[in-house]
Amino acid sequence: MLEVIDLECIRGDRRLFSGLGFTLGPGELLHLQGHNGSGKTTLMRMLCGLIAPAAGEVRWQGENIRHARETFHRDLLYAGHKSAIKGDLTGVENLRIACRLAGITVDERHAWDALERMGLRGHEDLPARVLSQGQKKRVTLARLLLSRAPLWVLDEPFTALDRAAVAFLEDVIRRHLADGGLVVLTTHQAVSLTDEAHVKTLKLGWKREGDV
Amino acid sequence: MFEAMTVLIRRDLLLALRRRSDVLTTLFFFVIVVSLFPLGIGPELDTLRLIAPGVFWVAALLASMLALEKLFAGDFEDGTLEQMLLAPEPVFVLVLGKVLAHWLITGLPLVLLSPLLGLQYDLPGETLRVMVLSLLLGTPALSLIGAIGAALTLGLRGGGVLISLLVLPLYIPVLIFGAGAVEANASGLGAAGHLYMLGAILLLALVAAPLATAAALRISAE
Amino acid sequence: MSSRLVNWFHFSSPATFYPLAGRLVPIFAVIAVILIAVGLYLSFFVAPTDYKQGEGYRIIFVHVPAAWMSMFIYLVMAFWAALGLIFNTRLSMMMAQALAPTGALFTFLALWTGAFWGKPMWGAWWVWDARLTSELILFFLYMGYIALQGAIDDTRRADRAGAILLLVGVVNIPIIYFSVKWWNTLHQGASVSLRGDVSMATTMLVTMLIMALGFWAYSIAVALKRVRCIILERERDAGWVGKLPEIRA
What we know:
The structure holds three protein chains of three kinds.
Chain A lengths: L1 E10 L2 E11 L4 E6 L5 H9 L6 E6 L2 E2 L4 H6 L1 E4 L11 H11 L6 H10 L15 H14 L4 E5 L7 H16 L3 E5 L12 E6 L8
Parallel strand pairs in A: 3-8, 3-9, 6-7, 7-8
Antiparallel strand pairs in A: 1-2, 1-4, 4-5
Helix pairs in contact in A: 3-4, 3-5, 4-5
Chain B lengths: L2 H16 L1 H22 L3 H34 L1 H6 L5 H30 L4 H28 L6 H28 L5 H30 L1
Helix pairs in contact in B: 1-2, 1-5, 2-3, 2-5, 3-5, 3-6, 3-7, 5-6, 5-8, 6-7, 6-8, 7-8
Chain C lengths: L1 H10 L2 H33 L13 H28 L2 H33 L7 H22 L3 H33 L14 H33 L4 H4 L2 H4 L1
Helix pairs in contact in C: 2-7, 3-4, 3-6, 3-7, 4-5, 4-6, 4-7, 5-6
């Protein structure tokens, strides 16, 4: 269970949001909405603990994430705008290293398998710099197939993906939710994710406080 | 706990292997700087022997500093740094891995090459040995201390010049004891005292610098 | 005890500190002017001429207090930085930032007067004396801090990155000082100390102390003045700034 209490964010001289709060339980998805610059990415990075909030706190399983950093990060998967992919390494190497950093050991066969399911057959052992934008995104998102983390925070996961990949990713997310996972995501695309009962939306930027 | 660290070290070594020019740039910088001094000062071997410790150590200092800019920049730009900060391991352990890999790539080759360059300065065998030993103790400390500066200036305009301003004053004790060890040996005094001091600085840097670097990385990656 | 703590945190808010600082600035400015005037009078007219060094030695009445202040201010900055990192108080970071130029100024003053003193004493403008060299390195540390603060646009990052640098610097200062001293004794360079003889005349000591206190008051006055500017700059969007009489006028 992810709880956000009275969160405030100040970037530079600007107050992006304040008094923001929501809770997200197992099997629930939070869709963050807002125009460009409304603070979606900042909020996501704050949820991950990359940015310290100016006020308020984020709790994971009842504990402030700043106090239980390591357990929280074991349960968290964050995919930001930046791909975290090295151009000089192959897709398989990138994926395995990313998983090891996140605390999961993945053998070569599973990595190949995950990339194949992401539709990268035949490109697994090419250096990532020759891959297209969408293919790189697929390498990043292949982590979702191998991760055991219950909380996924995905910043614009659907951009640069073709229609087939979007459908596949939607399916992956849906299954994760069905297994009791939690997802926070932003997207500008209209996507059909799961039955409405489990989707929450949070609009940033329209009013000062956005409560769900 | 050290698994993620070894992964990072192996990854950085692999990356260096695939892009060898980065390793060679630092090494050649060191070679060129050391070779420039005789051209500026004159070829008298007596003078050269006298200035050799200072020249080698200042060159090592500058080479180490030059390489610092790349220490975290790549990971910062492509987002790997975020993933490092989100890893379930303490960040300072990962920092230690990064710095160790960085030293293996940029520091160790320079240490290994230094006796060869020492011959250009007509240094006797025993002095060469002390020089290698002092560089072996001193250059990892330089990488560790420099990592703090690299982390603080991450993503800033004019980061390279700024790093030198932040880091060079902190390098001074290493320079003094490193060059001092070589000089003490050359002038017939024992170098042991200097080397112990270098070792103590290395130990202190090993304990404290990764913590400061981890804190600085968190601030810079916000 | 607890009520006192609360009181301190009350003053750590920029809105309450701003007017308080405004009241304190003139008081410390007046103290500084009086003490420095008295100190200068004593150092030029009352303190006895040194039998070895002649009249030129009088520059130590500026040099030594300036050197003291340069080191002391760095420590104070590191103290504010540590406080800012621990309690996450914006004001203490602003204090560290406000003190930096004054610290650098005193370091420069100590170097400058050291060079002036060195010319007649040693016949050279610069001597690689352990104290002077350490002072030079301290000057580099100040410059590094100021440059880092200047290079970062985001104030929060600038504050915290600067604080880390200060703490790293403060750990390093004893190591640097020790190593420079070691280096200096090994090379048997000029190790003449600017402190003068051990048996310093009482008037000399008193003069030096008065000058040091004067510099101290000056530092406080200038730092408070500067911190007021920093507060206004950073809090310009906050409601209370708009209500200040000097802003409305």
